[in-house]
Amino acid sequence: MDNQTPSLDYPDYLTYRQWMNHALELARMAGEAGEVPVGAVIVDGAGNIVAEGENRKERDQDPTAHAEIVAIRTATQNLHSWRLHECTLYVTLEPCPMCAGAIAHARLGKLVYGVDDTKTGAIRTVINIPDSPASNHRLQALGGILESACREQLQQWFASQRLKQK
Fold it and tell me: Where is the active site (predicted)?
């Protein structure tokens, strides 16, 4: 399936919105903690939360502590498996190359994200890792869920950071 045109029926869309709202709440908490506000939730095929993550780079002093990586690490520990093919990852911002690689290696079943990242987006905006010949996994991906809310949250956080620097 082309990662830019998955089918969207109404019940799925409501589910996508529900989980993206949850990811937005995690992103809000990250922003309040001084992190770039990105949140991630991994849900299994039965609709249960398997893991949550939020950016923790500053708090953990770990350049790999992106919301997606934090969530993937927790999910694999909780499920006792690195294969997450039955799971969906919801994240507020399009994953970067590092996270897109981790998503492929974790064999996530689906990725749903909020807003495109025009600087480092590695799902479809800047580069397309899932459809690259270098990828060992074909990922179903859907962007644009609660896009305005995700964009606004990031823009407001960065604006507040610029004000603090003045």
Answer: 68 (proton donor)
Nearest to 18 by CA among 90, 82, 68: 90
Tell me the three state secondary structure of residue 27: helix
CA–CA distance, 96 with 99 (Å, rounded to integer): 5
150 is in an annotated binding site: no
Q: Decide: 114 and 96 in contact? Cβ < 8 Å.
A: no
Please say if the pLDDT value at position 151 is more than 90. yes
Q: How far apart are CA 29 and CA 146, in angstroms?
A: 18
Catalytic-residue membership of 68: yes
35, 52, 68, 94: which one is catalytic? Answer: 68
pTM score: 0.92
Q: Are 95 and 68 in contact (CB under 8 A)?
A: yes
Q: Is 96 annotated as a binding residue?
A: yes
For the record, the structure tokens of 22 come out as 């949850």
